[in-house]
Give the backbone structure.
Amino acid sequence: MMKFMVRQKLDPDGNVTEDHLQPLARLVADSIQDEPTGSVRWLGGCGTIDTKQFYMLFEAPDHEALQQVVSKLPGLQSIERVMLATKDTLARGLLLGLAKDYEERTSR
């Protein structure tokens, strides 16, 4: 599954609850169940209330599948494929790198 960042910017007179929170809740409700349905998963997001700009992280099989799900969001700005780095993925990468260095150093 690929990771995507979806950017939404509401008009200055946009209503955060009606134009962001409620439509997003409808989009992601199925993906946060104990047994998610559909191929698109909401992973989280952040935004600013003052500028009414929001960034949402999704996991989807491809750009087209995600586009179908988020296309009705008011103020949709972009959908971009991204790399996700978390403490878990960084720790795994660090451990793999240390293990490789150790193997190379001790095999000489």
